[in-house]
Amino acid sequence: MADAMPDELRKSKRYYKEERQHRFRAFEFRMSMRITSMVPDAQTIVMSPFGAEETVAKPLAELTPWECASFCFRDCALYVHGDHDDDANSDTNMSELFNAVYREWYPHRQTLLDTDQGVFFCSPVVSLCPGRPLEELVRFHRALCGRVAEQVPFIKRTMMGGRGKGVPCLPFELWPTFPAVFVVTNAVKWKREEGGVLVVCEGEEMARALGLQVEKATSTLKPAGEENESWLGFSMTLIDAMHAIVSRDEERRKARDMDSKFYVENYAPEEQATANLSLDG
Fold it and tell me: Which of 277 and 26 is assigned the larger pLDDT?
């Protein structure tokens, strides 16, 4: 009988797998989709296809199943904008934002699905429409989620291509929070100790589900044509926003994988000591 894998080798193999996943998520984050128009019936997405140097622009309604798959297995959308044209297009700015998100998300990730399958906290979307009202972003987000939902059955079929016989199709779907919650931030100002991001929730029920106090909402949004529905905005730090969204799942409140080499080598001792989220919300 073969000897069990030595502990150091097991940890080493795990570390390199984790680091590979980290690199791919970082690449994907920097190559995020970009919005050039939020006008109804003319919403436009700009993409950099995997491995391609040029970008491709297309209407939101023409997103393919493969393109829509990048919004599955995510807690929320992260809309990023900048005060200047180059802010949100800067690799440095996007890399710093990604690293902050990844470090907080990794110990609280969804472990039922392997991170190789695309599981992550957010799908980043860069807004190239500065100064537009948040109500327009709400309408865009609803349209985006509608398109992805339409494509989910086709995503499942597409992703089956090339899989071996007997290999199950991944259960591609929009996670419950994705259509009802999104985060808006500035490519540079997200580092603020207070008010670096805005968490936008569909209605008071969702806000309360995230542990947010409705009376502390900093904005109330009523998109045109949807006056009977209100979206609430809450200003907070990036980490507080992630805590609110992730903590809906009691299994993800507590940080896990404390023996992970990637986790240990990328967290300072004081960060490890405070990584577990409060069960009191």
Answer: 26
